[in-house]
Write a structure and sequence with these properties.
The chain is an alpha+beta fold. It has eight helices and eleven strands.
């Protein structure tokens, strides 16, 4: 019994002592997003036990409206109050609502402070958890500190290398497309050789350009030979069919002559048979011969029709082959022109980015490096009732939860005077890529 009384007395005295302390100017005041942990106990003498309010012994977050919603307590104001004041308010509310003879022992401790924010010239701007006693200098350390100039230079060097690679690839693609376009145009015109544009002829000493032109010449020769071989085969087939047709026409003439002679002989034999000067079997044999010759003539006519049909098919194949080739070349030429237009647009963009990286960005970096000794301008934006206020800060200034620390590094007032313009290398790449399409 004495042990329980001693424990309860200790808790009560501690709570009373904590609640009796006046709120000083430096005392922390709660606000939205603060997370508090409640502990509520009650000494029940009738049972000689310490009762724990388990529904309240938990962590709660102050809402955006600055209030807490608690079991048995309801909505209670937390914003702008100290943890001790909030504990007394919760105890009063429980005593009133639950009909208690005395206040339960309530303690409020901060489980997690609301965050602070840092923006501007720092490595990692954003939201960070607050801790008591935080200074502006410590906040800068949490955000990664000020940017390092070496990091910027390394990034610019990588961007320059990447940009030069993109421009080089686009230039190679442009040369290849120009050579292909010239080959397709020569195929459409039915020329014996490719008429390359002056943009490629003037740079024929360049190994890349010469290789692209040589490859297109080989493709041109192969495609031309393949088309010529197919057309020649079809024309030769047509000539063979024409010869076969002429032979069948001669056979048909020969059959007509034979049939005419046999029919004359048959007519003579038939007269002799009627007069009894010739036997009937002779007449029958001649009639069979006539029938066989007419059958052979009909077969020859059928063969002639077949040959004429094959000749018509051959003419159609020759026409289809020519039309198909022309259609394929025209479609390839259209796609090549579209690719050239796309490469031209990409080249303009890549050259502008490379120019900016090689000239403008280093110029701005030089200004930043000259400003390296400039002292950062530190400002705290602190929320207050009805809005915010901006406070000039030093490295030792204390940061409060919910503050926004702004870091600004001033640049020299002088502009880009005296800084180099675009180098000749970029302009040379510009001339190489922006070939006339």
């Amino acid at each position: 019994m004495r042990k329980w009384l001693s424990t309860v007395a200790g808790i009560s005295l501690t709570t009373i002592a904590a609640n009796a302390l006046p709120a000083s100017a430096a005392e922390y005041l709660l606000g939205p997003q603060d997370k508090v942990r409640l502990k509520v106990y009650e000494w029940r003498a009738s049972r000689d036990v310490i009762f724990e309010w388990t529904a309240l012994n938990d962590s709660f977050v102050v809402g955006a409206d600055g209030t807490l919603f608690l079991p048995f307590v309801g909505q209670i104001r937390a914003e702008g109050t100290a943890p001790g004041d909030l504990a007394r308010g919760i105890g009063d509310r429980l005593m009133q609502r639950m009909g208690l003879g005395r206040q339960p022992d309530v303690s409020v401790e901060i489980a997690q402070y609301r965050p602070f924010y840092i923006v501007g010239n720092v490595k990692q701007p954003g939201e960070f958890p607050y801790r008591p006693g935080l200074t502006v200098l410590q906040a800068l350390g949490i955000a990664g500190g000020l940017p390092i100039r070496q990091d910027d230079m390394s990034r610019l060097e990588r961007e320059v290398i990447s940009g030069q690679g993109d421009v080089g690839l686009l230039a190679l693609n442009n040369v290849s497309l120009l050579a292909r376009k010239a080959r397709l145009q020569s195929e459409v015109a039915g020329s014996d050789e490719i008429a390359f544009p002056s943009e490629l002829k003037d740079r024929a000493s360049n190994e890349t350009v010469a290789l692209a032109m040589d490859q297109e010449r080989k493709i041109f020769a192969i495609r031309k030979d393949a088309l010529s071989t197919q057309l020649r085969s079809l024309r030769e087939l047509k000539e063979f069919l024409q010869q076969e047709l002429a032979s069948l026409e001669q056979q048909l003439t020969f059959h007509d002559k034979q049939i005419e002679l046999i029919q004359k002989e048959l007519a003579g034999v038939s007269n002799l048979v009627q007069k009894g000067l010739a036997v009937a079997p002779r007449e029958l044999a001649l009639e069979g011969t006539v029938a066989q010759m007419q059958s052979d003539r009909l077969a020859a006519e059928t063969s002639m029709l077949r040959v004429r049909q094959e000749m018509s098919k051959t003419d159609i194949e020759i026409l289809n082959l020519s039309n198909q080739h022309s259609s394929e070349v025209a479609e390839s030429l259209r796609e090549t022109q579209l690719q050239l237009n796309e490469v031209s647009n990409k080249s303009d963009t890549a050259l502008q980015l490379l120019h900016e990286t090689q000239v403008t960005a280093p110029a701005l970096l030089a200004l930043r490096q000259r400003a390296g000794l400039a002292k950062p301008i530190l400002t705290i934006v602190r929320p207050k009732e009805g809005g915010t206020e901006e406070l000039a800060a030093q490295e030792t200034t204390l940061v409060e939860p919910g503050d926004t620390v702004k870091v600004e590094i001033p640049l020299p007032q002088s502009g880009l005077d005296g800084l180099p313009a675009a180098d000749a290398g970029i302009q040379a790449e510009t001339t190489a890529v922006r070939s006339t399409n």
